[in-house]
Amino acid sequence: MTSRPDPRSLLQDLDLDKQQLLDLLTLAAQLKRDKQHGDELPRLRGKNIVLVFEKNSTRTRCSFEVAAYDQGGQVTYLGPEWSHLGREESVADTARVLGRMFDCIALRGHAQDTLEQFAEHAGVPVWNALTDVWHPTQSLADVLTMTEHHGGDVEDIAFCFTGDGHSNIARSLLVTGALLGMDVRVAAPAGLQPPPDVVAAAEAAARSSGARLMVTDDLYPAVRGADFVYTDVWVSMGEPDDAWAARVRSLLPYRVTDDVPNASNRFGVRFMHCLPAIHNRGTVIGASLHQQFGLDGAEVAEEVFESKRSIVFGQAENRMHTIKALLVRALAE
Ligand code: CP
Ligand code: NVA
Q: Is the overall model pTM greater than 0.85, yes or no?
């Protein structure tokens, strides 16, 4: 038997409207200040949260855990291959079991359909902790980070995503930016742009929010006037290693070197990345890209990643504050 997802669920960015997004951002900023001032109240005492992760994670897992513990909640982590999910037990059965034990579920998975099945069967709120097609808790943190650095109204912020525009990150940023009425540009080669249904959803949101949207293969016009330049890895988790050769060929013109933020012509332009980033040879993938293609870093050059313009670690911290806002909004008594 299936049922409707709990309305507190977050399966994709489009599940939130503009006011809900703004309320979450306000709550996250408040919770961040409370923690910094030592004023945090434990509003999740007695709440049990399970994290079901089919893919690796550093930021998202730790954000859910620290957020929950800060608020007095309890967390169970089920990592890739740690449970029976999908192998010995169906998604629906696993969701029904976990829904009997936990107050909410965060799922990091491959297929969006797995997440939707969880939400149908669990009977408790289910949150998308990243799927192949959406990463809504990331875009929430990204907008909080932009508002902290911009200082103006969210509608005044312009950002340019460059690189794999087909990725979960680009899709979530496009839709969330559209919902919030922002100036959103996505620069990506023709074969790697956000899919038409996502662009159509963003355009529909933009009609009521007043967002300005641009999806183009022409990076330099897209970056002009942008307050933030954003990129993501060129090959995402779950994609095959042999995708790299074609991605390097098509995405090299979209790599963030100093020329890209310089072209924005904005004083105070900042660089953003969801992380993890390939910005030098210091990882297994970075070393392999150097060996295979002579690259020193991929989607972003070291000169930008390590520059004063880079706000990537503040962005990573904000994952925790925004995820805490989601948990508190859904579960606090
Ligand atoms: N940005 C992000 O989701 O990072 P993790 O994969 O480390 O969770
Ligand atoms: N597009 C990346 C985002 C990682 C946070 C991936 O899915 O691997």
A: yes
